[in-house]
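HOLO CASE FILE
Compound: pyridoxal-5'-phosphate
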Amino acid sequence: MEERVYNFSAGPAVLPVSVLKKAQEELLCLPGCGASILEISHRSKQFGEILAQTKANVRELLNVPENYKIMFLQGGSITQFALLPMNIIRNTNKAGDYIVTGTWSKKAASEAKTQGKVNVIWNGQDEKFVRKPSDAELQTSADAAYCYYCANETIEGIQFPTEPNVSVPLICDASSEIFSRPVQMEKYGVLFACAQKNAGPAGVTLVIMRDDFVEMSGADLPSMFSYKQLADKDSMLNTPPTFGIYMMKLVTEWLKEQGGLEVMRQKNVEKAQLLYDAIDASNGFYRVHGNKEFRSFMNVSFRLPTEELDKKFQEEAKAFKLASLGGHRSVGGERASIYNAMPREGVVALRDFMVDFAKKNA
Ligand SMILES: Cc1ncc(COP(=O)(O)O)c(C=O)c1O
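Model generated. Tokens follow.
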């Protein structure tokens, strides 16, 4: 296939074309370097500048205060599911409070249980993960070091409209919504996100951690598992994911050119509304998984009346360059991931296809 499609994959996911082109231009010879980013030492001056610039971009975009460390780690978000309780619960003999709103926060709570005491303070499983809790439903525990939540459940397609208000520091899995809207960093002890949805390629995970959490973490753990040691060595305890960090630099530069995160939020909400309006106007032909006020503006998860129609929809969509629309294997149906880099034209093309498909098949 020679032509680019509209790629609705949940991750690894679409990247801005200008970012891919820039990476392509610079791949053979990084300006001022005489070699590729893939070939230079992580200890080189050039890579040092890339790391520093990526950190500065992240700090600027997310308005990260000076008392937070920004780290670029490996092992994906699931590794963070284990490292957080390993460092924070096990080392302090406290507990972790978990808000379970879908597949990813459920997995995080179950990984945390391998490391220490976990209190699931809210669980939406019996309601089939269709909503997020209100603040009134959240009672944090006396022994909690933190309250963990997942900002956007990628599989179920439900999102916290704003961060929960609780009396202990928040830990947030922002994997599928990082850089899609502004955040109030002061409310977080830790915010982390794997890059492969909204921030770059697979292989690098952004971890933003307040200094007191860094200090709380276990210095006596094996070095690569210790946030304290990782932070003290500025993500360079071993060879960091250099290409992923370079790509995140390009993505964050692109985000700054777009006008920053408030502009991205407006664009994202508007794109998602195009799809939800078509769904709501379909007389029940398309059904969204989550309750209306928690619908995700990153992952639009929906179903058709039968599995046969689901298959037909995905098959026929391909002719319109609409790709990777299958829902997660655990839930089926359709999922349109419309991250920052999905252009509005792609969403309009999908919306038009959906309207037409419903007319012909309802
Ligand atoms: C919200 C969320 N958390 C965690 C993960 C797992 O990320 P990784 O595959 O990088 O471990 C994913 C991704 O697929 C996700 O969407």
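CASE NOTES: The chain has a mean pLDDT of 96. The longest strand covers residues 117-123.
CLOSED: yes
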